[in-house]
Design brief:
alpha/beta; five-stranded parallel sheet; Rossmann fold; 8 strands; 3 domains; GMP Synthetase, Chain A, domain 3; about 325 residues; single chain
């Protein structure tokens, strides 16, 4: 397994700085000159010989972060496009995300780049999109159920007190999950505002700049996340809540590419008819699969017998693929 990206982060940043300067994008070039950069391993797939996925993390001074806060997603997308052009020769080592965060110093917290793949797998139980589920201790069972319901879509959830091994120091393990998560979801149940730990976890996520998704479950978000659009939900229908949460992750700029890839992986390797049927409606809503992903979806319809024989799946997916192919043909 490749644990290190082929080129140093600083070399990549210097190249991007020069490129954006030549393009007249001096604001982005200026950010790059101030950035403390790291390239962190995030996961792996086994398609076509295997690929490793990485995230380019850019930590910049707070004033610089404030200057781009309203357009941060656009800046990250612009950087990701140029990263793809600069690193296209590394087809087995893909930088799939760029994250810009303020330089927030947290005493004692390990850096994501210091976590080995073995530690990441222990915390997250797989290579899916890493979702930290913050909740009150008394709502643990609902949090565990939500984690279970999002797993078939390629989401690896972390629920403190359930996922911490007895021989691990619990606070350090939570910090490892916080520095390596891709997104955080907050279960806003009456009484949530009394949890100091939940507030700290949310603040950590906001400081890192990862997506924070409040779930309105009988109480309103407040404080730092009061301005974030919340998902309405009902604990009597956690499957529906999980489905809406996955839709949100598919739309968010920072998680959409990773979610698309994990949906394809889960569809390719579906072990039951139920999983194939569960994934079908999510696949049909995605409009940004690339050509390679469409080919893999098509192969799954014949090479995976659970997918091929799942009621209603081959017909609907084949129709979807035909539409996607026509759309790609018209755009080229």
């Amino acid at each position: 397994m490749n644990e290190n990206y082929p080129i140093p982060a600083q070399t990549l940043i210097q190249t991007l700085d020069e490129l954006f300067s030549h393009l007249g994008e001096e604001e982005i070039a200026g950010l790059l000159r101030q950035a403390e950069a790291s390239i962190n391993w995030e996961g792996q797939d086994n398609w076509d010989g295997g690929r490793d996925f990485y995230c380019l993390n850019l930590k910049i001074p707070v004033p610089a972060f404030a200057s781009i806060d309203s357009k941060r997603a656009a800046v990250e997308n612009a950087l990701l496009q140029k990263v793809g052009a600069v690193t296209r020769q590394f087809d087995r080592d893909v930088i799939s995300r760029v994250i810009i965060v303020p330089d927030v110093r947290v005493t004692g917290a390990p850096g994501a780049g210091q976590l080995s793949p073995d530690i990441l797998r222990r915390i997250w139980e797989g290579d899916g999109l890493r979702l930290f589920i913050t909740h009150r201790a008394q709502d643990k069972l609902a949090a565990v159920e939500l984690k279970t319901k999002v797993a078939p879509y390629g989401v690896s959830g972390f629920v403190a007190h359930q996922d911490i091994e007895p021989n691990q120091v619990w606070q350090s393990e939570i910090e490892r999950a916080l520095v390596s998560m891709h997104a955080l979801v907050a279960m806003i149940i009456p009484g949530f505002d009394s949890s100091v730990w939940c507030h700290q976890e949310i603040g950590f996520a906001l400081g890192r700049g990862v997506p924070v998704i409040p779930l309105r479950l009988g109480a309103d978000p407040h404080g730092f996340i009061g301005r974030i659009q919340a998902l309405n939900g009902d604990l009597s229908n956690i499957q529906g809540l999980a489905s809406n949460l996955v839709d949100t992750l598919l739309k968010a700029d920072q998680t959409s590419a990773m979610m698309r890839e994990h949906l394809v992986l889960e569809f390719e390797h579906a072990k039951t008819w139920e999983t194939a049927r569960l994934l079908r409606p999510k696949l049909l809503t995605v409009t940004r699969f690339d050509g390679g992903q469409l080919t893999r979806i098509e192969k799954a319809l014949t090479e995976n017998q659970k997918v091929a024989t799942a009621y209603g799946v081959p017909e609907a997916v084949n129709e979807f693929l035909a539409k996607q192919r026509r759309s790609i043909s018209r755009s080229t």
